[in-house]
C-alpha cells in the first residue's frame, strides 16, 4: 500500500493495524445518524424533507429559531419575595408541590418522602413522621409538579403553603416564575431532611429573611438576573454547582437596600451573612427562577423541537418539548457519574433529582462547564480540557450560541442555547447536567456531586411523538 493514504471512518480498532504497518491515515470520528436505527433515521429524513414551507425552508428550523430569539431576548428581573399561597392559584394548607414529573406518594424515593414529611411538619399539619405518613396515605394532601405552577425547586423541590418564593418577571414578555430561597448547607429539606433544625431554619427564612429581602427588593426596583449570570460566567461560575461569584454579585446589587431594610433589626447580622457569607449556593435558586421565566416563553410553539424543561423526581427523569406542551416524556433517572464525599460511594446515592436542570435548558450549568474550571474536580470531571470538550459538544445539539452569555475561557463564544431533540437523537449526544447527589435515605443529605444526562429513551419517545403529530 505504499504511496496510499487511508481515511478511517469511526472504527477505532482499524487504527492499530494502520499504525503498526506505518500506513498514513486520517481518522474521522464518525457515527451513523441515530446510532444506525433505521426507524429513527427515516423519521429524521421525513422531518427534514416533508415539514417545509412553500419555499422549501424547514418549518422546524423556523420554529426553533423563533424559540432561540425569544429565549435570548428574555430579561429576568427579580422583583419581590412572595409567599406560595399568594401566587399559586387554588393553593391550600394541604397543597404541596415537588420537583420533577408527576409521581405518586407510594412510588417516591426516600429523600422525596422525607421532604414531604418535613413540609407537613413545617405547615403544622403533623407533629411526627407517623402522623405525616398517615396524612399522605389518606389522600387529603394535594400534590404535583412545581412546573405546573410556574415554579421550580432544587433536589426534592418542596413548595408548601407558607414558603417564601423569589418572584422573577421576564420583563420582555411579562410572564413570571418562582423558586424557593436556598436553605444553605447541612441538614436541609431539599435533600429530604425533616428534623427540628430543618423546620426552624425554614421558619427563619419565612419570618425573618423573607420580609427583609422583600423590603430591599422593593426599594431596589428589581435586579436583572441575566446581567449577573453573564458576569458570573466570566468569573468562573456555571450557575448550577458553582455560584460563588453570582451570589456575591447579587449581594453587591442588593447590599445598600438590604442594609437600610435591616436597620434596627436584631437579626441584621444573620440576614446579611446568610446572603453574603454562609451560603455559596444562594444564587442557584435565582438562576432557576430566571431560566424558568425564560424557558416558559417558548412553550407551545408549533413545529418547535426545543426543550422547555428537564426535571427529575428521584425516580423518573422527565422532559417537556415546546410544540408538545405540558406532555411529559419519562424514563428512570440515572445515577450521576460523581465524586463522592469521604465515607460515601455510589451504593449510597439516590438517582438524580430536582428541577435544577432548567438552567441547562438555558445553556448554563453543565452545558457551560468550560466556563468554570474550579467546578471540574468537584463534579468528578477528569480535567479542565474535558470540561471544554463537554461544552464544545453541546453546540452540536443546540439551535445556536447565545453571545449574551460569553465564555471567556473559550474565546468568548456564547453558551449553547436551545436544545433540539432532533439533534440529540441524530448525534447521540445528550445534554450534560451538573448535579448534586443525595443519599438514598431521607435526611442524610448531600453525599457528592457529579455529571448526569437524561436517558436517551425520553428523547427518542419525544421525537416519535412529535413525528406522530406533524407527519401525515
UniProtKB/TrEMBL annotation:
InterPro entries: AllG-like (IPR009499), OXTCase_su_AllG_h-dom (IPR024033). Pfam families: AllG. Gene3D superfamilies: conserved protein of unknown function from Enterococcus faecalis V583, Enterococcus faecalis V583 domain, NAD(P)-binding Rossmann-like Domain, v583 domain like. This is DUF1116 domain-containing protein. It comes from Thorsellia kenyensis. The lineage of its organism: Bacteria, Pseudomonadati, Pseudomonadota, Gammaproteobacteria, Enterobacterales.
